[in-house]
Amino acid sequence: MANDSKKFQDIISHCKEYGFIFPSSEIYDGLQAVYDYGQWGSELKKNIKDYWWKSMTQLQENIVGIDAAIFMHPTTWKASGHVDNFNDPMIDNKDSKKRYRVDHLIEAHAEQMVANNRQDEADGLIAEMEKLLAKDDFPGLKKLIETYNIKCGISGTSNWTDVRQFNLMFSTEFGSSSSSEEGDNIVYLRPETAQGIFVNFLNVQKTGRMKIPFGIAQIGKAFRNEIVARQFIFRMREFEQMEMQFFIRPGTQKEWYEHWKQERLKWHLSLGTDSKNYRFHDHIKLAHYADAACDIEFDFPIGFKELEGIHSRTDFDLKNHQEFSKKKMQYFDNDIDPATGKAYGNYIPFVIETSIGLDRMFLSVISNAYEEQDLSTPEKQDSRVVLKLPPRLAPIKMAVLPLVKKDGLPEIARQIIDDCKSHFHCFFEEKDTIGKRYRRMDAIGTPFCVTVDQQTKEDSTVTIRHRDSMQQERIAIADLKRIVLEAISGTTTNTSNFLITN
RNA sequence: GCGGAAGUAGCUCACCUGGUAGAGCGACAGCUUCCCAAGCUGUAGGUAGCGGGUUCGAGUCCCGUCUUCCGCUCCA
């Protein structure tokens, strides 16, 4: 499937044509890397969310959910490291078109000088650079690059653009009146939801009487200014994360990291997707907060890409919040340590994070479900586009179709819907030939089409058509609800009811 | 950010070397139809991305701008 760009384009078109995903503000030519979910897309997205939420909270004895605000105190992002790490000044070489982080460029030059026995000069350069970086003096940095005649490794020229700051965090003004102190009332739109969990760690632990190990789950929007963002909903400026931070005893991070790696993979597989579409990718170069990290990658039409991250975040976040807030972020553990015979006592918990992009999950689900089928026979050319969505995720579970729109058939169909609609999403359609209606339902992934015909009036049976096989069977109306409910609750696929006991 | 290509009805596209916009599918209304799209009739829908220029006249030529796609780059 790798790099099947035609298929990717087809999926994007299909998403738009059938009301799953529209470019944002399309009537104004759109807004780059921002998308809206339409009538069926929002249903599918919500079903994914519900499935995750249920798996991570209801089915886990020691995980609870929260819903933290998008706005957070600005110091949050200093403590988390995002202010420093998301603000790298960059510079482009106009000839090679190569972009460099300014600090990397200068450091590389300094290393070169050291190699040429000019240690003192190199030290001076670095010192000067750090002074300028601390002041955010971009013209000064450019001048420094020119003064030292630093050249691009590829073009060999020093034809540089201005130094520019790439703000990966969105900021906005807080409060209705502008402050006299510049920057005083700037708040960021959170670039990850995790910090909302960390700052509430003690609130939840105390009010929920949570004992370590325990987890806090959250679904919410996050915002990042991407430099290049042209990959449909794979990389968006406004996106939604489903994260869970699992708080554990220091020293146990390795086993819990392994545990959540396996648990999360199981969750993906529980939706019936072939395991060959998934693989783990271990991070060699670790982020500033992690002592182990991997991604679950999915084989998207654009190739294997990151779908979910599992990170062992150590005590980095809680420790920093403790330092910046001057509030204790510790847990008192009464359990007896078998090694010492004494209670574990006070400590800052370590954290294992599972973080999945909801929009990426949506893309993985829909690209896995999308299928163009050639149904031609020697007599007749025929084809269909079908979304083989897991029934539990499908926007509509059951369409009820009167074979003809007369003789009381529509009325019977309405009755069936009235009986079922409080249990799952139903859809009524009497227009066009039955075949067209089936195909329209295939295109949005409806797993069941129920057809009311003349026989229904005689014996209260209907035909039920299975989306994937297109096979039909005749069943009693009285059995309908149960059959559909069984299919969408997926008794055979629910493998994630794993209770954590230790 | 750079290079290339493209923007005409909801979708796919046509209009050749400038002369006041067209098809198929789709949608809607009706008819027909007892089970898998391309039966019948009718209706709606486009100031040709936007702005400017050349011209008697521009979708068609020129410039600008925006957007999208492909490649590179970047990021993770």
Describe this protein with a few key phrases.
about 500 residues, 16 helices, disordered C terminus, about 25% strand, alpha+beta, about 35% helix, BirA Bifunctional Protein, domain 2, Rossmann fold, five-stranded mixed β-sheet, single chain, RNA-binding
Explain the overall architecture.
The chain is α+β, with helices and mostly antiparallel strands. Among the domains are: 5-66 and 193-366, Bira Bifunctional Protein, Domain 2 (BirA Bifunctional Protein, domain 2), CATH 3.30.930; 396-489, 3-Layer(aba) Sandwich (Rossmann fold), CATH 3.40.50. It contains 16 helices and 23 strands. The chain has helices at residues 5-17, 39-58, 75-79, 82-85, 102-115, 119-134, 138-147, 194-198, 201-207, 253-269, 316-325, 358-369, 409-420, 434-443, 454-459, 477-489, and strands at 21-23, 35-37, 63-66, 89-92, 99-101, 164-165, 170-173, 186-189, 214-223, 238-248, 278-282, 292-300, 303-314, 331-337, 342-347, 350-357, 370-374, 383-387, 398-402, 426-428, 448-452, 461-466, 472-476. Strands 3-9-10-16-13-12-11 form a seven-stranded mixed β-sheet. Strands 20-19-21-22-23 form a five-stranded mixed β-sheet, with helices on both faces. A three-stranded antiparallel β-sheet has the order 5-4-6. Strand 14 (331-337) and strand 15 form a beta hairpin. Helix 2 (39-58) crosses helix 12 and helix 6 (119-134) packs antiparallel against helix 7 (138-147). It is globular and about 95 Å long. The structure holds one RNA strand of 76 nucleotides.
